[in-house]
Amino acid sequence: MITKNQEFELRITDMSAEGSGIGHHDGEAVFVPHTAVGDLILCHIVKTKKTYAFGKALDILEPSADRIEPDCDVSSQCGGCCYRHMTYEAELRVKQKRVEDAMQRLARIDTDVLPILGSEKQVSYRNKAQYPVQAGGAKGLQIGFYGLHSHRIVPCMDCLLQPALFYDVLTILRDWILRYKIPIYDEQRHKGLLRHIYLRRGAHTGELMVCLVINGTNVPHAFQLTETLKADLPDFKTLVVNYNTADTNVILGEDCETLYGDGFIRDTMLGISFRVSPLSFYQVNTPQAERLYQIAADFAQLTPEDTLLDLYCGIGTIGLTMADKVRQVYGVEVIPDAVLDAKRNAKENDIENAEFFCGDAAAAAVRLRSKGIQPDVIVVDPPRKGLDPVLIGTIADMAPSRVVYVSCDPGTLARDCARFAEQGYIARKIQPVDLFPRTAHVETVVLMTK
Ligand code: SAH
Fold first, then answer.
1. Are 326 and 320 in contact (CB under 8 A)?
2. What is the DSSP string of 302-370?
3. How far apart are CA 106 and CA 412, in angstroms?
4. Can you give 35-91 as a three-state secondary structure string?
5. CA–CA distance, 313 with 280 (Å, rounded to integer)
6. What's the whole-number average pLDDT of the chain?
7. What's the helix, strand, coil split of the chain in %, to 5?
């Protein structure tokens, strides 16, 4: 039995889904962040559970061959990256194995997993960041990221995953906050105004959105902020406030108001122009997401006679980039603002064969089916929790000849593929794509046919 504060030598032999190294001691698994397969460490146990434990590496006695010097000062504290201490090749091997383990061991699917496609950019690849702000520190203000499993801020304004421009934006915001004494939100007491700074930048257009998440009804001195952003940043397009007065750790509230500009930015994907509103989902690594969509289109084997159903469609990126290859596109999305974006995106690109519906994917699929719509291809791109089993049944009843599953979680993907297999849909191609270098996340596209 491993006990808290125990110390021992530990060899790391595997990696967890969260990106921690795993070693075994007395038959129990020990999870140690920021270690790599092959490391021999001096491990200090920080927390124990019934059959496993969490440790930290006090010392690295023998380094793994995959180790490199991390290029970020806060990577061992902030909850964002978990692979900065290993080569990108090693990271890709870990991700490949994760998808293979999920599909083969969990779901007993014996289809080969194609070699993972790495991201060309491993730094500055993101187009979006949400920075919590807190009072404290030397200047009385801290902007950064939450530490792993914590709500303590790790100050960081120059995260390597973000475009360099975000540092300039944060500098302007910090000066404005300090100069005008903008009250900072205090999570414990649920008091104060400014909770988060939310930035988005179109990867192809450069257009910049600044969104302030506030616990209140009004941003003081917004005019001065707008003037500075306009004067200093030529790509600044819109300033938005998001109201979040709830005592919650959900970042965004449900309502936004535009303080300057149109309230959205534009970007392009695969030659189609998209407007992106603050509450709408938009893939964070644009060039790599374009590759992802191309693989999805290739797997879908689209023909001009096809009806395509794009479930969990967001602002319509998947359906609209495929619309010229099919007869008709239907998209379903639960967030109203995203559906509005999708409809306008169709219109502004002169795409006339795409229709979008707001609602829950499972319920909408039933409605579409009762209307007699028979898709030839269904693309699903759900959030991490994956698909409702009822939806898998409805999809099987609609009997499309191809189902393309775009997934951001190998675990739920594997579970759902096993459920599809029970309905006669067999995985034919499995392609992992790395959209999130240096973090634990990995995206996968699967083609299933009957
Ligand atoms: N395909 C899009 C969006 C994928 S993200 C793209 O590539 O950009 C998943 C989307 O599913 C989000 O837009 C989210 O708002 C939406 N969503 C979450 N739960 C849903 C549900 N029950 N029904 C329909 N859409 C849902």
1. no
2. --TT-EEEEES-TTTHHHHHHGGGSSEEEEEES-HHHHHHHHHHHHHTT--SEEEEES-HHHHHHHHHH
3. 10
4. CCCCCEEEEEEEEECCCEEEEEEEEEEECCCCECCCCCCCCCCECCCCCCCECHHHH
5. 10
6. 97
7. 25, 30, 45
Tokens of 85: 């201490």
Amino acid residing at 433: V
Q: What percent of the chain has pLDDT over 70?
A: 100
Number of neighbours of residue 164 by Cβ within 10 angstroms:
10
Question: Do 134 and 53 form a contact (C-beta atoms < 8 A)?
Answer: no
* Residues 6+ positions from 188 with CB-CB distance below 8 Å: none
Residue 39 to residue 54: CA distance in whole angstroms: 16
Extract the tokens encoding 194.
């400014």
CA distances from 153 to 43, 78, 170, 237 (A): 26, 8, 15, 28
Whole-number Å distance between alpha carbons of 434 and 99: 11
Atom of ligand 1 nearest to the CA of 361: 23
Tell me what the mean pLDDT of segment 20-28 comes to: 96
For residue range 39-75, what is the model confidence (pLDDT) as tens digits? 999 999 999 999 999 999 999 999 999 999 999 999 9
Coil/strand/helix, residue 238: strand
- Judged by DSSP in three states, 119 sits in coil
Name the residue with the closest Cα to ligand 1, atom 11.
Answer: 312
Pocket test for ligand 1, best of 312, 388, 406 (most atoms within 8 A of CB): 312
Task: Give 340 Cα–ligand 1 centroid separation in angstroms.
Answer: 14
What is residue 203's predicted lDDT score, i.e. its pLDDT? 98
Other Cβ atoms closer than 10 A to 419: 18
Reply yes or no on whether the pLDDT at 149 is more than 90: no
pLDDT exceeds cutoff 90 at 235:
yes
Task: Check residue 416 and give its pLDDT.
Answer: 98
Ligand 1 atom with the shortest distance to the CA of 335: 15
Contact by Cβ (8 Å): 102, 16:
no
pLDDT band at 148 (very low <50, low <70, confident <90, very high): confident
